[in-house]
Each structure stands twice: as structure tokens, then as C-alpha cells.
Design brief:
single chain; about 150 residues; mainly beta; 5-stranded antiparallel β-sheet; 1 helix
Length: about 150
């Protein structure tokens, strides 16, 4: 009981000290304004330097890639795979995995600027799915104890 009393007092002390806010406090940050000092007018001649924008050298106007992976872990039962390829703005791929209910989910997808993203999902039961059935329980007639006065 004393521990509960000490814990309650500690909580009240923390709240009154401002460690725990009693109400939700929102702080609004002031907008950041950039200010620059004007250069000293010691030189009257001003020279304008051209601004050169550096082009992004790693930009690929027609990106292309292909990749795939396959995981088959006998220890955990994890089974999944994916294949995807891109040619410009068109992406095609397929992935599959084993759902918790024992079905294999396979998704085939495409994406392009005209049709957007489209996916076709197929689910099929695995051959390894074991269905356990419970043996029927024999009906037992209730046994009543004899009741005597």
C-alpha cells in the first residue's frame, strides 16, 4: 500500500514540476526569413556572373533493369519470389508468396503511363496442405446416480 502511495506522489510531483504536461502543448515555429546584408558600396562597378546550372549526370531518359529473387527456407517454411523488369516507363513483374492460410498467392502486374498500375491476383491451394480431421466422439449416455430418500 505504501508503494502505491509513493508512486502516486511521484506522479503528482512530476506533473506539477512540468515534466509531464497536464494538457497537450503545441508550439508553432516562427517562419524562417533569410536576410542578407547589402555589400558595401566601395566598388561602383558591378559585374554580373552567369549562373550555371549543373545538369544531373546520372539521369537516364530511358531506364532499363531486370531483377529477380527466390527464397525457399525449409527451416521456417518461408517461400517467396519476385521477378521484375523495366523498359522506359513500362514495368512488368510477378511475385508469389505463401499466405498464412496455406494458399499460394501469385500477383502479375504491369504499370505504364497510359493504363496506370494493373494487377491480377491468383490464389491456389498448395499440394502440401494437410487437412486434419477429428475423429468422431462416441456418444455416451448420461449416467444418473440413483437418488434415494
Amino acid at each position: 500500500m505504501a508503494f502505491k502511495f509513493v508512486a502516486l506522489l511521484a506522479l503528482i510531483a512530476a506533473a506539477s514540476a512540468g515534466v509531464l504536461p497536464a494538457a497537450q502543448v503545441y508550439h508553432h515555429a516562427a517562419p524562417v526569413v533569410a536576410t542578407y546584408a547589402a555589400p558595401a558600396p566601395a566598388i561602383l562597378k558591378t559585374v554580373a556572373h552567369p549562373v550555371v546550372a549543373k545538369a544531373d549526370e546520372e539521369y537516364d531518359p530511358h531506364p532499363q533493369y531486370k531483377y529477380a529473387y527466390d527464397v525457399q527456407d525449409a527451416l521456417s517454411g518461408d517461400s517467396k519470389s519476385q521477378v521484375e523488369e523495366r523498359d522506359g516507363d513500362v514495368v512488368r513483374g510477378e511475385y508469389s508468396l505463401i499466405d498464412a492460410d496455406g494458399f499460394k498467392r501469385t500477383v502479375q502486374y504491369t504499370a505504364d503511363p497510359i493504363n496506370g498500375f494493373n494487377a491480377v491476383v491468383n490464389r491456389e491451394p498448395l499440394e502440401k496442405t494437410v487437412v486434419k480431421s477429428v475423429a468422431p466422439v462416441a456418444a455416451v449416455a448420461p449416467v444418473y446416480a440413483a437418488y434415494h430418500h
